[in-house]
Amino acid sequence: MGGVVSRDDFMWTYDEQPHTSRRKEIVKKYPQIKELFGVDPSLKWVIAAMVAVQVFFCWLLQNEDWLLVTIMAYCCGGVINHALTLAIHDISHNTAFGQKRSFDNRVFGIFTNLPIGIPISVAFKKYHVEHHRYLGEDGLDTDVPTEFEAKFFTSPFRKFVWLILQVQPLFYGLRPLIIYNKLPNDLEILNFAVQIAFDLVILYAFGIKALFYLIFGTLIAMGVHPSAGHFISEHYVFTEGQETYSYYGPWNLCTFNVGYHMEHHDFPYVPSRSLPALRAMAPEYYASLDQHQSWTWVLYSFVIDPKMGPYARHKRVASAPQVLEGRHILRKYWEGIFNYFAIPEISRWISSCISAKKTD
């Protein structure tokens, strides 16, 4: 125990991801599961309350001692902000307003992002879709570590440092820019602008301690923190032959049931609130699979077990090319505004006047 990792490559597999076939089999046997698809009507209200609580804590901590602010950021703010990142995960599957209101889901995701302090919502959505569609595929699933991460973070100490550096915007945040560098879209720019504006309002209204409480809480809860155990527990291979794992313990109450991860990958359009009901409908498909009992134990095992490390992931050859250009959802809105105020016509008139002067 505690030695250098024993693996020197990813676990390459040439089989289709297991969730596709299991989904078909479960739906055939239990068609009533489709009734769980759709919207979680409580999600938006729970998130609004969490955002309000974080702003209240900013007010409460603005003149407190730095030590208390730091402790609160780890024990309270970090837990709430990590939960909000997982709420963004839920919203990315359109569970706040439904599949037909994608734009409303994206805008609500930007609102959910506010206490997190770092703009992640829109970018997460565009990469998370690929994670589900191309699970483990080389160059498409940015949840899989890079070769550098896998080769460098091999000892217990280095793996511990790697866990710390999972915080946004380091390895977990920068990895997509290295593996699959998609061009930013207009909603990402809006996400960035709104987030910076909110951070400046918090700084102006409550001071640097309040802003530190939000951002430090986000960062510390993404690394060595019980909430962050799901990053390792979800797809790192603790049992040969099993690619995805669930956890059914009490931390699900603080993380929008992200522990029900096998169920989520089988049915990504089932809201997190309904995942326990999904498992109860088809228990025989999940009871025999290995599951985790503790996210804290997962983090500890990952550090000390030589079998575990960034290489302990299933990987597949890419089945599709990378698509770098994104969809600009806001384009039709600002083009409509431009047309309403005749800006294209005015631009053409100015250009024609300039051309006429040059001719003269």
From TrEMBL:
One of its GO terms (biological process) is ceramide biosynthetic process. It is found in: Membrane. InterPro entries: DES1/DES2, FA_desaturase_dom, Sphingolipid_d4-desaturase_N. The gene is WBGene00105823. CDD domains: Delta4-sphingolipid-FADS-like (cd03508). The lineage of its organism: Eukaryota, Metazoa, Ecdysozoa, Nematoda, Chromadorea. SMART domains: Lipid_DES (SM01269). It comes from Pristionchus pacificus (Parasitic nematode worm). Signal peptide: none annotated. GO terms for molecular function: sphingolipid delta-4 desaturase activity. Belongs to the fatty acid desaturase type 1 family. DEGS subfamily. This is sphingolipid 4-desaturase. Its main location: membrane.
